[in-house]
Description:
The protein is α+β, with helices and mostly antiparallel strands. It is 29% helix and 29% strand. The protein contains 8 helices and 17 strands. Helix 2 packs across helix 3 and helix 6 crosses helix 8. It is globular, with a radius of gyration of 19 Å. The two termini are 25 Å apart.
Amino acid sequence: MSPKVYIGGKLYEKADAKISVFDHGLLYGDGVFEGIRSYSGKVFRLEAHIKRLYESARAISLVIPMTQADMCQAVVDTLNANKLVDAYIRLVITRGAGSLGLDPRKTSDPQVIIITDSISLYPAELYESGLKIITAGTMRNHPSALNPRIKSLNYLNSILAKMEGTNAGCLEALMLNHKGEVAECTGDNIFIVRDREVHTPSIDSGILEGITRDAVLEIAKSAGYKVFERTMDRHDIHISDECFLTGTAAEVIPVVELDGRPIGNGKPGPVTLDLHARFHRLVRGEA
Ligand code: PMP
């Protein structure tokens, strides 16, 4: 069955799912998006993703032409139309087509696009052996330039850092903020574990407020770990016992090396594995 893509209230065959080349989403990256996941037919934290989407849109003065409740329903309907139960959902809102100038007032009809796909993950063995990452020279967007809390269609900042990672043979790369502090990875949030305490950069470190990050903070607290959201630098990672990343696609994945230096004993640690298992139970429990 050919996948069906939602655009503005209608479902289109993949080959017919098209929008204008004059859309400012394409011309300028002017728009916002979400990456969401469903487990056994139930979308994980759908309302939280939709809330973040509308907040991103508000931050760029983009009015989404439907309510949050209708957007939730459109996601569920698109999944059902595609008969997908374990899926990755890409929700994209563009500014709409306009003239060849930046001015968003000269656009009309923001486009609402929902693409569903099977989930593509990091290779399974990396959850056993852990990721090796490098620090990218590309710094994370300055929050006063383009706030990383906005999940905008302009992802070049992350793409440039990701290229540095892949050129060095790594699937992820650490990004520092304009102060040289640890921010996040190109598409994942970062955590460390030290003396069985769980630490992650605070939102004011200039990061995306990950839905998985929030879920893992909740899980860790309720499992009795002490949890800290704080300023971190690379030294904190080098002296940590464990490190892991969180994200919708990645879930909870261990990191065992930063810039060629092993973290802890160079193997995924017990707290990471515990949180990974608890996260799995949560997503399946909420499913
Ligand atoms: N940081 C960045 C830059 C991201 O793009 C993402 C999402 N891929 C994340 C963190 C993780 O966010 P979430 O847990 O909501 O997927």
